[in-house]
Amino acid sequence: MALNENFRIGRSALLLLLNEEDEQQHERLANADWHYCTGKVGSMEAHKVVAAVETAAKNNQIINKDLYREGHALYHAIIEALHGVTRGEVQLGSVLRTVGLSFSVVRGSPYENSEEGEWIAVSLYGTIGAPVKGAEHETIGLGINHI
Predict the structure, then answer these.
(1) Phi, psi at residue 117, to the nearest 5°?
(2) What family name appears in the similarity comment (predicted)?
(3) Which of 10, 92, 100, 109 lies 20 to 30 Å (CA to CA) from residue 139?
(4) Domain 9-146 part of CATH 3.40.1510.10
């Protein structure tokens, strides 16, 4: 049950997010037959962040919108990533915080044994802070879940 050293799904999601213009990263993911997308979201509401990532994943056929288990796996990966962004408390507007985030979603098989199945990773990077321009700082989060 060893992870494939060349295809770490969380690392791939972070590199895609932080180096979106890196053509080698896009080629590597495509050659591995992994599916991915990127996007941006800004909000004072955590549910809007979840909705933006879910919508992008569905619109880009990263997950099958008709299969509950795929949406469920994506949801948990998003929430785990949001825990990193919000330092453990997935609250924004109710505690006067807002985020401006870029995100990536990557789906693939990170294990050497293909019977381990597919996994999904969500990475979030951007700013978080009080809803006052200039009162924010950088933040990052990563969530990984099996499908």
Answers:
(1) 85, -170
(2) Belongs to the HutP family.
(3) 109
(4) yes
